[in-house]
Inverse folding.
């Protein structure tokens, strides 16, 4: 099937496009770009609506099927706190919000800023925007108001939707009250809509409108706006772990179809696309925040477009108990569980108490995202959560790609702990040396994709030159991922890490993922992070930050690295720390570790799930 999809790309995507109920059929599947910009035009002249594809189309025959189960952080067995929506109820709610947005002046092409916690309204608002043609600009609720405002202003948002606040790890955080006076007075902002989530009173201006009384009075039906295939669906700003945030632009048909196709084929999910009994429904649990691309593609869009039941958890997956997410899996009979290696490393440190009391009988497929998963953690996930029967799909992709580029296929392809397997359908990966020649099997190089695909980003908002410069010009005729990798003799690909995270020691190249996976193999290591600092003799010196337990010592780590990778890979220093700085999506912010080590100013910590850690890390470095 992969061979056919690469050799007959247009024929393959024509067959996949039948999953979408088109309002107007497309004329051509793909038209080559006029200029050398690689992407081209997908499904030209076709018309569709993402909200209709995701929700409305299921109402007639499957309206009573459960679409969304939201679980509060305050929910307990003795005091349940959940909200459950059927597809019919979700469609009605989306229509009411869409009608309200329309009354606020939102029309086709209007950018709408969304700054909401993990509550049903964040998904409802995204789909309500899609229903009337608005362009959603969703920002992670853990960002500071300054970060959110910068993104909304850069995107040219006219309407802002937020909440009084949210809950995280038993504490309330504020949103609406933190928006600055200067931002609210900006003439480009016409309305600020606030959802009352934690019953916190907020100061208001003439631009403010309350959510509840306005939405509840709106009509329960709203016509879906026919959207051109290449019309924008959303803007998503990258998290900032690699520098200045970029507004990634994704369009309607190509992005939506690619997200659907990757989820269907990689996970083996059919949803409501094929008839099945209610007790056979797939139940999807994804621990990502909706503010990141994983939350967009595999919480808001693809799971509903395929007709699954989505479980959405409000808080941190380890609160109020470390095994909270496992409780949800057994309670709601989750069949497909998607999470990040960081969470798994935390949970694997106490196997007995976290997994043995759960059956996990409902689970069929497990998946990971966000960073390479080391073999030790992979095996723990497979044995203790998957009970040695559930395949793990280690998915590799980016905000820019819209969906998976590389992944095993559940139940179909051979699994290798630590490898993200082979390419998705129609994806043709190449690994190049610096000079542009193709690397040999086993040789590290730069990962590129040689053919376009429907879900690829169309541009960086207001900076198309940056898009072509960063992704398309390095290797003409290819998309450059920015990552280092190698391909083994079977054709499976192993991600080493960001090319700009490559550490060169005395002429030897090491990726951060490679170094960290090696350290994580050592007993009593929970997780680690590798960074490099300049060394006049070796070029780079390796520095390891390690979260360990018991009596693990620095020399233990160094001896292990020497045994596994050779003396050139022995770190110059090893710092033992209580935790590593991470974004809420689970990515380790290595840049911040480098800032701390070099005593550089740290300008922003609001992207972190654990900002209080910074001072502890400074103390660890000072003590050492």
């Amino acid at each position: 099937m992969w061979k056919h999809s690469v050799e007959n790309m247009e024929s393959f995507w024509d067959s996949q496009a039948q999953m979408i109920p088109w309002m107007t059929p497309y004329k051509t599947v793909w038209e080559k770009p006029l200029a050398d910009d690689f992407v081209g035009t997908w499904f030209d002249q076709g018309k569709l609506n993402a909200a209709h594809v995701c929700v409305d189309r299921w109402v007639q025959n499957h309206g009573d099927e459960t679409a969304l189960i939201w679980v509060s952080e305050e929910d307990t067995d003795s005091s349940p706190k959940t909200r459950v929506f059927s597809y019919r109820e979700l469609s009605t709610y989306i229509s009411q919000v869409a009608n309200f947005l329309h009354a606020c002046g939102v029309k086709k092409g209007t950018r709408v800023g969304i700054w909401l916690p993990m509550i049903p309204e964040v998904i409802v608002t995204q789909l309500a925007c899609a229903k009337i043609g608005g362009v959603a600009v969703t920002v992670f609720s853990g960002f500071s108001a300054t970060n959110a405002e910068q993104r909304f202003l850069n995107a040219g948002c006219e309407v802002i939707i937020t909440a009084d606040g949210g809950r995280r790890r038993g504490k309330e955080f504020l949103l609406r009250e933190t928006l600055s006076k200067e931002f609210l007075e900006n003439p480009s902002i016409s309305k600020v809509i606030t959802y009352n989530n934690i019953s916190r009173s907020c100061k208001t201006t003439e631009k403010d409108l309350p959510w509840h009384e306005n939405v509840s009075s709106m009509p329960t039906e709203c016509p879906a706006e026919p959207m051109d295939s290449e019309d924008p669906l959303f803007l998503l700003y990258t998290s900032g772990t690699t520098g200045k945030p970029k507004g990634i632009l994704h369009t309607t048909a190509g992005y939506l179809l690619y997200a659907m196709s990757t989820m269907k084929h990689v996970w083996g999910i059919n949803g409501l696309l094929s008839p099945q009994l209610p007790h056979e429904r797939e139940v999807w649990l994804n621990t990502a925040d909706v503010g990141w691309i994983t939350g967009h593609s595999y919480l808001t869009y693809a799971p509903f477009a395929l007709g699954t039941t989505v479980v959405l958890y409000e808080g941190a997956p380890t609160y109020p108990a470390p095994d909270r997410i496992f409780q949800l899996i057994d309670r709601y009979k989750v069949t497909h569980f998607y999470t990040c290696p960081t969470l798994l490393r935390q949970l694997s440190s106490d196997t007995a108490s976290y997994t043995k009391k759960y059956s996990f009988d409902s689970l069929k497929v497990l998946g990971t995202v966000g960073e390479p998963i080391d073999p030790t953690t992979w095996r723990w996930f497979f044995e203790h959560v998957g009970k040695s029967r559930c395949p793990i799909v280690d998915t590799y992709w980016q905000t820019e790609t819209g969906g998976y580029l590389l992944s095993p296929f559940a139940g179909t392809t051979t699994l290798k702990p630590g490898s993200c397997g082979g390419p998705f359908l129609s994806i043709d990966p190449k690994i190049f040396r610096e000079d542009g020649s193709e690397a040999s099997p086993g040789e590290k190089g730069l990962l590129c994709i040689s053919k376009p695909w429907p879900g690829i980003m169309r541009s960086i908002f207001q900076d198309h030159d940056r898009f072509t410069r960063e992704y398309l010009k390095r290797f003409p005729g290819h998309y450059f991922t920015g990552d280092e990798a190698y391909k083994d003799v079977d054709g499976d690909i192993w991600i080493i890490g960001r090319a700009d995270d490559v550490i060169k020691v005395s002429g030897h190249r090491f990726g951060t993922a490679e170094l960290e996976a090696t350290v994580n193999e050592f007993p009593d290591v929970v997780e680690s992070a590798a960074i490099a600092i300049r060394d006049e003799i070796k070029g780079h010196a390796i520095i390891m930050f390690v979260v360990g337990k018991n009596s693990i010592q620095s020399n233990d780590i160094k001896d292990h690295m020497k045994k596994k990778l050779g003396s050139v890979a022995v770190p110059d220093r090893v710092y033992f720390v209580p935790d590593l700085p991470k974004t809420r999506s689970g990515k380790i912010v290595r840049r911040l570790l480098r800032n701390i080590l070099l005593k550089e100013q740290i300008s922003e910590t609001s992207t972190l799930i654990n900002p209080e850690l910074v001072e502890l890390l400074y103390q660890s470095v000072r003590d050492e």
About this structure: The two ends are 55 Å apart (CA to CA). The mean pLDDT is 92. The chain has 20 helices and 30 strands.
